[in-house]
Amino acid sequence: MNSPFHPGETYVQSRLGFAEQSNRIGQKFIRSQIPDQHRDFFESQPFVFIGAVDETGHPWASYLAGPKGFISAPTDQQLVLRASLPTDDPLYGHLQKSQKIGMIGIEPHTRRRNRLNGRINRVTDERLVLDIDQSFGNCPKYIQRRKIGLRQQSGESYTCDTLCEDLRSTIKNADIFFITSRTKEMNQQPNTGVDMSHRGGERGFVKVIDEHWLSFADYPGNRFFNTLGNIHTDPRIGLLFLDFDNHRTLHIKATAEIQWIQQERNILVHVDHVLVRPNPTLCIEEFL
Asked: Is 150 exposed, middle or buried (0-12, 13-18, 19+ CB in 10 A)?
């Protein structure tokens, strides 16, 4: 039976003593199709978070949003998103047929989250069609209960190569962010490609060292170690911070290093480039 994990993931699993457990759980719960429960889940979402690479191969994290029903799952092998990326999105113009993509749907008010990895079957200005390689659920740990709604907001995007005091403050106060990582090799094997993952914790769980460096602890999860396994093979990552207070998103191009501290792990991040975008859609409607 083919492993659902690539060598980077199995290395981390083995190093931490979870190789047998991770493989057993992965064989059972990482599927090559979307189960009906997950199809219903994605079809009910007003937004999903996506990860893909640009023309240089560097991962970026972003999201797509739309009215309820903008996502459909016509079969258990395919997902259709009737939405397009804004022109200032870091992935705009970079999504191509056959390209690998990672996705996570998260429902903060119920603390549900489901992930999938796949390939782009078709992309137009108004539609993105994905063929599924892997589909699996994640545990509800570290998700702040809140209801996120949609709104309209205008403003100018800007870029910078360092984290100014304003951006450092946003990151210090974050209790959620998203991380896109990639395998070094990308081929037709379903266990290679791009992963989109959620990270959450109490405010301050992301440490800002200075204008170029961040760090965060890797909390225990499903023990698949997708992100760590990817970083072990390729240090390039993309981060997405949602700044609800200032109605903007921070898209960060970075590289990461795993710091092994006995059985714990810390991720050290070097920030290379930041894109700050006014957030036209996501807002907090209420805390729960």
From this structure: middle
Pick the CATH number of 7-287 from 3.40.50.300, 3.30.450.20, 2.30.110.10, 3.40.30.10: 2.30.110.10
Question: Scanning the structure block, which residue is given the tokens 């047929």?
Answer: 97
**How many beta carbons lie within 10 A of that of residue 108, not counting itself?**
20
CA 9 to chain CA centroid, nearest Å: 17
Please report the pLDDT score of residue 285 as a whole number: 52
pLDDT per residue as tens digits for the range 148-207: 766 766 778 999 999 999 999 999 999 999 999 999 999 999 999 999 999 989 999 999
Residue boundaries of the structural domains of the chain: 7-287
Q: Give the count of beta carbons closer than 10 Å to the beta carbon of residue 21.
A: 11
pLDDT of residue 240: 98
